[in-house]
Structures are given as C-alpha cells and as structure tokens.
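A.,

Following up on our hallway conversation. Structure tokens first:
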C-alpha cells in the first residue's frame, strides 16, 4: 500500500437541468491515517470556475467546509464594504450638485 493517497467526492446542487453549485471535497491520507480534508466549490453552470484560488483545508470534513464558508463570508464583507464606499462617495458628489456626468456601467449590465 502506498504511503499516501487521496479520495475525492463531488456533489452537485441542481434545479431541473440547471447546475446551481458544485462542492468538491478531497480527503488525504498519510500512512493509513487521514491527514486533512480540502473543500472547494463553484457557482452556477457546468463550466463555472472554482470560487477560491485554492481549496480550504481542515483536520475534519466539517472544519474544511466551515473554513470555506468563512472565506465566502469574508469575501462578502470585503465586497459589501467596497460597494458601500462607492455608493457613499457617489452620493456625496450628487449632494454637492455635480451633474452632467453619465453613469458608467460594466459591460453586460
């Protein structure tokens, strides 16, 4: 038997024929004992990229999924803060009477 091995399981959440999200968990073993779990997930669609740059690790399956959840919560807070800052700055300029500026939107919106 090899000194190390790994096992991967993938779960898909779907609605009808639409893939809503994918969760992949890898269990690593060293010398017959579980050494770690890694979790990562992707968003909507079959071709969706992983939402993290690297899998989140933990000593147990629950820890690795909890770590992934905390990562997403941190990302949410970071982006919510940035959006709030932009909204506040834009509102401040509008209150100061700056007009004639066209609103610019990202492509595809």
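Then the amino acids I'd put at each of the 109 positions:
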């Amino acid at each position: 038997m090899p000194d190390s091995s790994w096992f991967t399981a993938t779960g898909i959440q779907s609605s009808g024929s639409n893939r809503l999200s994918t969760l992949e968990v890898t269990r690593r073993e060293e010398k017959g004992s579980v050494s770690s779990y890694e979790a990562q997930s992707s968003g909507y669609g079959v071709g969706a990229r992983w939402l993290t740059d690297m899998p989140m690790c933990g000593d147990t399956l629950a820890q690795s999924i909890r770590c992934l959840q905390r990562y997403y919560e941190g990302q949410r807070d970071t982006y919510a803060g940035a959006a709030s800052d932009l909204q506040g700055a834009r509102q401040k300029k509008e209150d100061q009477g700056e007009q004639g500026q066209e609103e610019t939107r990202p492509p595809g919106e």
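The first strand starts at residue 4 and ends at 15. Curious whether your intuition agrees with the design.

B.
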